[in-house]
């Protein structure tokens, strides 16, 4: 737990949300989680995929005086987030074994100098002696554990390295800890909280209701004609996907005879944003 005094004076979370990420308002639960973290409370957040988990630690990271460490097992996701943050002018770096020696040294220097605001690492990298030595020389304000269900032996994606993160926490006694996941049963949530010594009073479970998504099953009637009627119904939507083949599908002979350029296996058109429409850093 840290003191709120470790937060930089000046911009508010909403200022950061608007000026850096391009959004006008927080989604439900986001603001509560962010306020909890900024108040120095260790926090567990259960939020659905696409619910804006990343902003729950990225916004505080830009308000804290020190470094925010982000632990994740998903290398490609970390790379994407670092690129998006850098494009928005945020000092974010990634350290892993895939970097060249020059890239590693550059990112290491960004952390050592205090220039980096966010450091993304895999749990294995965080546990390495040279990483521990690097971080022992800088101020760490926040330890973020993404995909926190990996720490639970009751989870579907248990990773032994995650269990060692509880010990890593002791290296940063003044850093607030936030654990996030989209996948956690009550038993897994309890295991995460116990493993990381997270206070029960700082747990947030967002609604998993996604009104923009629905599932519908219909009996097969006519096969091809039924499928083509469905494609006609969804054409023009932002994105409709029946299947995504490895190569672009060709119209079937029957479709060509009927004058259609579409295939029965079709992704459908994707509406492109116009230059006037806002482009955000990444989906929330």
Question: Could you characterize the architecture of this molecule?
Answer:
The chain has helices spanning 13-19, 30-38, 55-61, 75-87, 101-112, 123-126, 129-135, 160-163, 165-169, 186-196, 224-234, 253-257; strands at residues 43-46, 67-71, 92-95, 118-121, 140-145, 176-181, 203-205. The chain has 284 residues and is an alpha/beta fold. It has a 7-stranded parallel sheet, with helices on both faces. Helix 5 (101-112) links the parallel strand 3 (92-95) and strand 4. The radius of gyration is 22 Å and the shape is globular. It starts with 12 loop residues before the first helix and ends in a 27-residue tail after the last helix. The model is unreliable at 238-244 and 264-283 (pLDDT under 50).
Fold blueprint:
Layout: H1 13-19, H2 30-38, E1 43-46, H3 55-61, E2 67-71, H4 75-87, E3 92-95, H5 101-112, E4 118-121, H6 123-126, H7 129-135, E5 140-145, H8 160-163, H9 165-169, E6 176-181, H10 186-196, E7 203-205, H11 224-234, H12 253-257
Parallel strand pairs: 1-6, 1-7, 2-4, 2-5, 3-4, 5-6
Helix pairs in contact: 2-3
Strand content: 5-15%
Order of strands across the widest beta sheet?
3-4-2-5-6-1-7
Number of helical runs? 12
In sequence order, what are the helices and strands, one letter per element? Answer: HHEHEHEHEHHEHHEHEHH
What structural class do helix, strand and pairing data support?
A: alpha/beta
Task: Tally the beta strands.
Answer: 7
Low-confidence sequence ranges: 238-244, 264-283
Global mean pLDDT: 80
**Cα distance spanning the termini:** 26 Å
Helix amount: 25-40%
Shape: globular
| Whole-angstrom Rg | 22 Å
């Amino acid at each position: 737990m840290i003191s709120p005094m470790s937060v930089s004076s000046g911009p508010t979370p909403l200022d950061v949300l608007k000026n850096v990420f391009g959004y006008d308002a927080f989604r439900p639960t986001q603001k509560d989680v962010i306020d909890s973290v900024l108040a120095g409370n260790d926090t567990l957040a259960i939020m659905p995929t696409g619910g804006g988990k990343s902003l729950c630690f990225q916004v505080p990271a830009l308000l804290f005086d020190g470094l925010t460490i982000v632990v994740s097992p998903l290398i490609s996701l970390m790379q994407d987030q670092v690129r998006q943050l850098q494009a928005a002018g945020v000092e974010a770096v990634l350290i892993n074994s895939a970097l060249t020696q020059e890239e590693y040294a550059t990112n290491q220097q960004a952390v050592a100098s205090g220039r980096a605001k966010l450091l993304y690492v895999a749990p294995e990298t965080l546990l390495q002696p040279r990483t521990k030595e690097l971080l022992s020389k800088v101020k760490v304000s926040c330890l973020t554990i993404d995909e926190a269900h990996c720490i639970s032996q009751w989870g579907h994606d248990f990773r032994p390295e995650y269990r060692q993160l509880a010990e890593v926490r002791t290296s940063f006694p003044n850093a607030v800890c936030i654990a996030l996941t989209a996948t956690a049963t009550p038993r897994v949530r309890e295991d995460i909280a116990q493993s990381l010594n997270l206070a029960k009073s700082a747990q947030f479970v967002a609604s998993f209701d996604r009104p923009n998504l629905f599932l519908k099953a219909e009996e097969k009637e006519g096969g091809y004609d039924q499928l083509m009627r469905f494609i006609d119904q969804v054409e023009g939507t932002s994105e409709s996907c029946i299947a995504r083949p490895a190569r672009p599908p060709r119209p079937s002979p029957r479709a060509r005879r009927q004058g259609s350029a579409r295939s029965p296996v079709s992704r459908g058109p994707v509406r492109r944003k116009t230059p006037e429409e806002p482009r955000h850093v990444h989906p929330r």
